[in-house]
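Tutorial, part two.
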Amino acid sequence: MHSFTGDPGKRLDHFLQEKLSEYSRSRIQSWIKDGLVQVNGSAARASLLLHGGEAIEVSPAGLPPLKADPEDLPVEVLYEDASLIAVNKPAGLIVHAGAGQHAGTLVNRLVHRFGALSQLGGEMRPGIVHRLDKETSGVLLVARTDTAHRALAEQFAGRTVEKIYLALVHGKVRADSGRIMKPIARDPVRRTRMTARLESGREALTTYTVRKRFDKFTFLEVRIGTGRTHQIRVHLASIGHPVAGDRVYGSRVCDPPAERMFLHAWKIGFLSPATNERVTVEAPLAPELETWLAGL
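Running the prediction step on this input gives:
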């Protein structure tokens, strides 16, 4: 059991995330929901605003078994050591189960091939430290142990993980390089989208460099300093250059028609929790994207 004295002006869940940083946000939320967090002797909501001085007691529940069913489906491993696995996710593959999708995910494949993975991401997301959109291909890191998961999560939070993408965008990008700093928030009208048109939102940084210019498209190398939902797609669309094939954020008609969105997680650099050495993993550009470029 953990005991704390509440700080004034903080939500209960935010307070506990600071005090119990070794646990994931989803796990703390589940403890609160299950009544395992007591404030002055009573169960409380995650949104409870603390006034200061409250007696807070947390009774951590044991880690549940994996609930993502293993499935014998292919998974391409780019790198692995005792702490993590780096895989090449194809476009169209969902990372983990969610609404309307309970099988065939990357997690189902990983559980079959590797068995036990970190459980800090939750019962249906074992090993998942970060994510890629369904239609984005490329390199993704998966934690094998809870210790590795925490170490990688700290690197992502501290922005020491290098993330480089390749993107084909509509139009002619004028500058050879650029920097986009616009906050990203949930679109108040279309809740499945994000937007960079509001002054409010979470800070986000995207930089880009032109790799090649075409008649109606520009091929970019993109780096992100933050990892907001749909960040690259939203930021590039906000400057008038949506990612080719991205119908959600304004991609125009492609000729020939686009089979997928042209966004690829090309490289990721990080410190391996197993070796304490810097590692860079590269996912080769997907064949359909190579064909697309060649056709231009």
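Helices lie at 12-19, 25-33, 106-114, 146-157, 231-238, 287-295. In part three we will examine how such features are distributed along the chain.
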